[in-house]
What we know:
The complex is a heterodimer. By secondary structure, chain A is of the alpha/beta class.
Amino acid sequence: MANADGSIVRLEGIHKWFGENHVLRGIDLALQQGDVQVVIGPSGGGKSTLLRCVNLLELPDKGHVWFDGDDITDVRTDLNEVRTHIGIVFQAFNLFPHMTALRNITLPLEKVLDLNSGEAEERAREQLARVKLGEKADAYPGSLSGGQQQRVAIARALAMRPRLMLFDEITSALDPELVGEVLQVMKDLAAEGMTMVVVTHEMGFAREVGTRMVFMDGGVIVEEGDPRESFANPRSERLQKFFAEIL
Amino acid sequence: MSADAADLVSPSDVTASAPDTRGSSSPYARSVFVAGALALSLVLAGTVAIQVIFAVSHTPDPHVCLANDIIPYQPAIEGVSPASGVQGWQGVCNIVLGLTSTAEQFVLILGIALGAVTGVIGVRSYRRVDTRRKRDHLITGAVFGGQAVNFGILLLIFVQSPQKFALQFMNFYQLRGHDGWALVNGIKFTLLLAFGGEIGGIVIGLILALLEISGRRSVRAPATVYINVFRGTPLLVQLSIIYFGVNLGLGLHLSSFTVATAVFALNMGAYSAEVFRAGIQSIERGQMEAARSVGMTYLQAMRYAVVPQAVRRVIPPLMNEFVILIKDTSLVIIIGLYLNQLDLFGAAQQGYSDTFSATFFVAAAIGYLIITLPMIWIVNRVERRLRSGLVGVTGGGA
Lengths: 247, 398
């Protein structure tokens, strides 16, 4: 079931304030099934806040989020139910450190989706194999490298079988040599047709894998379009300046 | 796996020590160290040894004891005279004779003199030596010497007239005379009160803490009021109000032991609530977010993700509260326990009113130390290990 306009998720006029700080100033965005929406821009531009507004970890102060035909910003929405369909992966991994990799994945399957432990474990091992960590099922997060932890976090999100995946600068906390393995998982996921919103500083990835791109600065979308097109010919002055600074 | 990752697996091994680079000592530095240690041993170990010798091999002469104001015990003679003198006079007399002996004077004066000399030599020369180990030996020797002088002078003043003090506080025979097991029983009931209060307090505290961290003021308010009332009033007053006011006033007639345990739990609940709240708030926000983002409810996220981690962090502060509670159980004396349920201090107080020997209070203090010292030791160890990262929040990984 899609939204009225055929999109899977649609943001309408999203505003967010943190105290005095007006972080999002009217964001509109719509994703079709299979889109890989990359979001780039300077730090403090509101990228992460925007992403967190999609699964309502941050509640927008104004505006609407439509997901699968429902306005999930309506107060009557069962957010816990909605969040089972939207996976998110964080910059800081946020694995539960007191549980094994396997338990990190099976816990929500059992407690939220009510799978029995056998089904949950089967599904969890499937996902661990998918991120190439099948042999690390019984390891605790503290004994895994950053890249491995992040792949477990991706597996945890994927095991819920979400319709939409959100990635919040998931390679920013990694050592450079570990970035590749995590990007590869995202590339595979994109190739399988997962609908994704990717906030990233990895410009190579954005250009190569993204199907659509927005450039955010100062709480607004400054420019949007096809990633390859935008990288080749940035229209706005601010995006040109941004590329000049980082590339 | 990267070097960083390897660091995560095994945090720097705190048990392995760095190579010893302090250099060698010299006979001179070493002898200052030995002299200091000897001076301190003369004062402390010498005093103890003299006491042991007097206690083991000495039957005190009643006349000498009498001369020291220690009146030997005379049992009552039917129809002739009532009992008189001090029960346990031999022990007290031996302690006094040991303290006032020439040998004691001798070891003290010798210890003080040796300590003073060592201290002066050590202090004057430690800057001029060329290795760190020599310096360590000289400084330690000087410190020992200084301690010998201090303790020696204090003891020397004390042994001039220890008779009254010994009679009051060191008549250990009296502990046996009253009821040999009264104090041991007291330890048992002190522990029962403390554990009862602690367990109840943890349950109450955890519930209060979860209310306290709510985003809604209406949920927080009752918990805040409860915590402030119980933290802002003396435990003595709480015991009195709840025992005399609630229990007797409402005609519940619960035993004072039951009421006391309940009050300790209520009080402990307020304090441990603050500990739990701090512990829960110390868990990174990302843990709650990660749990909520896979569809868990707030309570599920608390139960499975946040609280299990917080519990590990609050163990040391909670144990500190427990040590405080163990000592505070002595306040139960205000409402009075049954004689067969007396706590440690209650038993000591009972012993004192039976015999008028303050030795019972000394024994009670020792009893509390027997309970609390191991706990304090454990808290320090756990804290050190938590800080060193050897016991992180991971169950088995690290």
